[in-house]
Design a protein that fits this description.
Layout lengths: L15 H38 L15 H9 L17 H17 L22 H13 L1 H16 L25 H4 L7 H12 L1 H46 L1
InterPro entries: CIR_N_dom (IPR019339), LENG1-like (IPR039875)
Protein name: Homocitrate synthase
Organism: Ophiocordyceps camponoti-floridani
């Protein structure tokens, strides 16, 4: 077929009409995918909110897509009149992961039925804050209000236990009393010390000497004196060498003059 006739064929992929049709189909598919994603996010948010409230999960919209043999098997075994849960693929999920998740959710729903609650309290309180456990807080507050004597008795016992000396750390069965129970005991530091360290005073004196500013000043002055003495010795050594060199030169000139 001549090449100049190829562009006039309706089945040519590079035909202007076909390219425009492909662009329209791609745009429509993108819009449909965006709407489907929005619906999926809305359904997921409703399901999470129902789980937090402890209510029955809302029915999911029907999905007519074929997701594999596992989906067909679960749909076949599900009793009549029941609705499937969320059957859309998640982001980054392939067919195998999707089928495993569907089978796992189906098994979990069969083992543990939905929890139903009679609570119809709003999720937003009067201040405009989200409160998922308002009814529980109200019931616990009412229970505390019904038993004020028990609360006061509990606090009184707790305060009484804290005021008493604790002997839980003492050895069980020991007849020796703690040192703080003896009123006539000598409270001097030497008496409370069971074993006196013979080198304790030496370490304490050394620590005080090391931390004394006067010690640092004396050490600095000693180093300065040593530095000055070393420089003075070096200066004298240089002067002696210079004198010896001058004397050697003078003796050499005198010897040449006699010749």
């Amino acid at each position: 077929m001549p090449l100049h006739l190829l562009g006039k064929k309706s089945w040519n992929v590079y035909n202007a009409d076909n390219m425009a049709r492909v662009r329209r189909d791609e745009a429509a598919a993108a819009i449909a995918a965006s709407e489907a994603e929005k619906r999926a996010q809305q359904v997921e948010s409703e399901r999470r909110l129902a789980i937090l409230r402890g209510e029955a999960l809302p029915p999911s919209p029907p999905d007519h897509n074929d997701h594999g043999p596992a989906f067909a098997e679960v749909a076949r075994r599900r009793p009549e009149g029941s609705r499937m849960g969320r059957l859309r693929k998640r982001q980054g999920e392939d067919d195998t992961d999707f089928e495993l998740r569907v089978a796992r959710e189906h098994g979990g729903q069969r083992r543990s039925p939905h929890r139903h609650t009679q609570s119809s309290a709003p999720i937003v309180d009067s201040a405009g804050h989200t409160d998922l456990f308002g009814s529980e807080r109200i019931r616990s507050h009412a229970h505390k209000q019904r038993d004020p004597e028990g609360e006061s008795r509990h606090h009184g016992e707790k305060h009484h236990d804290q005021s008493k000396p604790r002997r839980s750390n003492t050895p069980s069965g020991s007849t020796k009393k703690p040192w703080y129970t003896n009123a006539d005991a000598d409270m001097s530091p030497s008496a409370r010390t069971s074993e006196v360290d013979p080198r304790r005073k030496q370490r304490q004196a050394k620590r005080l000497a090391d931390e004394d500013p006067l010690t640092f000043m004396k050490e600095g002055a000693r180093k300065v004196r040593e530095l000055r003495g070393r420089r003075e010795r070096e200066r004298r050594e240089r002067e002696r060498r210079e004198r010896d060199r001058e004397l050697g030169k003078k003796d050499g000139r005198d010897g040449r003059g006699r010749r």
